[in-house]
Design brief:
single chain, 365 residues, 3-stranded parallel β-sheet, globular
């Protein structure tokens, strides 16, 4: 398996993977931005950079799965081994990325497990994550795991995680099995998150039912299915009236919200063109695109131009920094934000950390 260290030493070339910088981080005038270092300064002021999309794993939780542990905790992708955090090494990498703090999460692998086993996995993960964050409170914060297939248990887990363990919200998938998050069974969980005032980080799990269509070259099961999963989840929450029911619910969408922000305006026309495909009993309080203003989106869209477009669609105040580390999607997440020349200093500081600091009640500098 190729780790980040291998990439930095030329391991990517050894595995036959070819990279091209292709000027992707160049600003509007074609100049390569300087590599950012800690402390990050914007307009002469220190900004705490907060990466809300960073992952971890714990061997103790996987041990409950026996022979299945390696399959779910060590998928055959670069960076998987580094999800098991070695603190000194992770801190050194964060320093190299100009990241002050990571808000850690664990992608759900327990939704398909029976209630008791899933609850044990979640209990261990939340305890270990709280312990890790408490050991380095200036560098790590964490999203709780939830046994979301058992919403009554998930409500208890969320309250314990926030009130007793110091976790900052919860990381959830994009649905549970085939049940969308707009289903009323999940309402108690959304109500508890709203009551506690903590965000829910939606991270997609892919769409296994599309396996045949997504087979072939290009890892389409992730390249296409992951952004699509987030798009579907957010669209259901909008069109089924879930955001109207829980107007104070704070949701952060991974990978820039999937495809939704890039084609959001189509949502405003759908029910006008095809009214029979829309439920007349669900009367939304706003235009579908207006709900994007109450969703937060991570910045993991790779290029300055993509970030510029995301800002134009949802507003800079709704975007937070994201890298997906340790998976090497974006090893320098701060740099593209600096390369967006249309941003003001305040907008840039908001994306880099100030908005996240408010969301998680973290000291901003």
């Amino acid at each position: 398996m190729t780790t980040r260290r291998d990439f930095l030493k030329g391991g990517a070339a050894a595995t036959g993977i070819v990279f091209c910088s292709c000027g992707l981080l160049k600003g509007a005038h074609g100049q390569q931005p300087a590599r950012q270092k800690l402390p990050v300064m914007v307009g002469g002021k220190r900004v705490k950079t907060i990466d809300v999309h960073a992952h971890c794993q714990f061997h103790e939780a996987g041990a409950l799965l026996g022979d299945d542990a390696a399959k779910v905790q060590l998928p055959p992708v670069n960076g998987a081994e580094e999800a098991f955090i070695e603190i000194d090494r992770r801190l050194a990498i964060m320093d190299s990325q100009a990241i002050d703090m990571e808000v850690l999460s664990i992608n759900p692998f327990w939704y398909g497990r029976e209630r008791d086993l899933a609850g044990q996995i979640v209990k261990i993960q939340n305890e270990k994550l709280a312990e890790l964050c408490a050991s380095k409170p200036d560098r790590f914060a964490g999203f709780a795991s939830l046994t979301l297939q058992a919403p009554d248990l998930a409500v208890q887990e969320l309250e314990t995680a926030v009130k007793k363990q110091g976790l900052k919200g919860a990381a959830i998938g994009d649905r549970v099995d085939s049940v969308e998050f707009s289903d009323p069974k999940f309402f108690p969980v959304w109500a508890k998150a709203e009551e506690l005032g903590v965000p829910l980080f939606i991270h997609p799990q892919g769409l296994p039912e599309l396996g045949k269509s997504l087979a072939g070259n290009g890892w389409l099961a992730n390249t296409i299915a992951n952004p699509l999963g987030t798009t579907i989840a957010l669209s259901h929450l909008i069109f089924e009236g879930t955001f109207d029911r829980f107007p104070g619910l704070k949701v952060i969408a991974a990978h820039g919200g999937g495809f939704l922000p890039s084609y959001a305006d189509r949502s405003d026309h759908a029910c006008l063109v095809g009214p029979k495909g829309c439920n007349p009993d669900i009367k939304l309080k706003k235009q579908p695109t207006e709900y994007l203003k109450q969703i937060y989106f991570d910045s993991l869209v790779f290029t300055p131009e993509a970030i510029r477009h995301l800002v134009a669609q949802v507003g800079a105040g709704q975007i937070v920094l994201g890298s997906d580390y340790p998976y090497p999607w974006e090893l320098h997440p701060v740099d593209p934000v600096f390369a967006v020349e249309s941003l003001t200093d305040d907008q840039r500081a908001d994306i880099l950390g100030r908005t996240a600091a408010k969301l998680f009640n973290i000291r901003a500098a």
